[in-house]
Amino acid sequence: MDVTICPSTLTGAIGAIASKSMAHRLLILAALAQGPCTLECATSSADIEATASCLSSLGLRDARRAQELAQPRPSLPTTLDCGESGSTLRFLLPVAGALGLPARMLRAGRLANRPFGPFARELCRHGMHIVEQGDCLAVEGTLTGGRFVLPGNVSSQYASGLLMAAPLLDEPMQVMLAKPVESKPYINLTLDALSQFGARPAQATTVEQGVAYEVFSLGPQKLVAPEHLEVEGDWSNAAFWLAAGALEREGITVFGLNLLSAQGDRTVLAALASLGARIARRGDAARATADSPRAATFDVSAIPDLVPPLAAVCATTSGTSTFANAGRLRLKESNRLQTVCDAVCALGGKARVAGDDLVIEGVAQLDAGVVDAANDHRIAMMAAVMATHARGPVTILDAGCVSKSYPGFWEDYARLGGIVQKNGA
């Protein structure tokens, strides 16, 4: 599906969708925990459903359905369709190993090409056997505890998956991440989720053979489920509405957010303030309004998902803005470092990639044009924000890819005043 957007002002208030990042973690931990548990998750997405489906295939419960009973554990290899969800794959791979359940894990899109080697090697050193067969991983063996040594600059999801599997093992686990640890807020999100089930990994730092590590340690234990859990609002997707608000004098409010969340992307408020937006916080709501636009420089090593919404603001903000340490964007659903740059340039903006940095020189107004979303949900949403400040219609190719994280994005865009025509829906 493609969409064509006619420039219009976005304004008003919109509710945040459920956090995809937290939903993955709570679904998995609730499935592994003892005791009744109902998980309230107001919205879903392709990635969330991938995790829920895989849990069911493993004979584990989907806590969103209070009356659903877990199915018998499979005795033969079961197929786990991870779709394009890196979280599903990287979280459930060690969980399947901890349960000793053989599986065939299917990967779609760019997922098969995203970094995996260091993780697979550590899992195989600890009792698992993993064979890559094209887009499928054949997995068997039982995961054991001990020391897992991983790079800190590839994916925080490695550590998160291991920590969620650790309580199931027969011996303690140490996860050692070489510094610097990028996207650490996502590990903090995992620690927050584990704490809700009674597990609190110990944290320390150490130096071995001249290499500094952050160390997370967790021993075998029973996870105890709260009777009721609620998935909090998603800051990563709310960031697009707040970015759109930062471009307009009328502003946009997003409610249903946890202003004290462990989600690293809540720093979007500080980032938008750096770009001259006026920010207001009250209760469970945040509001961004255009005020005194100015360029800024950001270190995005810990917040890579904020680059697309912030880049949409920088595209029409006078001055030169820089997103430093953005190299990990190459490993997303698209080579996001390049596709963000391409999206800005496709509409007459000025952007370039300089090593691991993205540099954007703001222009007064963008042009009409065509943006290829490159099957990347965040590129499609970024283009939609930029379209509000274009001289004419903007067509976004493959715009249906927003279903990965935000299936209702285009409907919410229209609710805020956007003019959207779906083509080939």
Distance between the termini: 5 Å
Tell me the helix content. Answer: 25-40%
Mean pLDDT: 94
Radius of gyration: 21 Å
- Main structural class: alpha/beta
Number of helices: 12
Low-pLDDT residue intervals, each spanning 5 or more residues: none
Strand order of the largest sheet: 20-21-1-22
Largest sheet: 4 strands, mixed
The number of strands is 22
What is the beta-strand fraction?
A: 25-35%
Outline type: globular
Explain this structure to me?
This protein has 425 residues and is of the alpha/beta class. The chain is built from 12 helices and 22 strands. The chain is 29% helix and 25% strand. The strands form 6 sheets. The chain has a 4-stranded mixed β-sheet with strand order 20-21-1-22. It has a 4-stranded mixed β-sheet with strand order 2-13-15-14, covered by helices on one side. A hairpin with a 2-residue loop joins β6 (128-133) and β7 (136-141). α2 runs parallel beside α3 (86-99) and α7 packs parallel to α11 (377-387). It starts with a strand and ends with a strand. The model has no long low-confidence stretch (mean pLDDT 94).
Task: Give a brief rundown of this model.
This protein is α/β, with parallel strands linked by helices and 425 residues long.
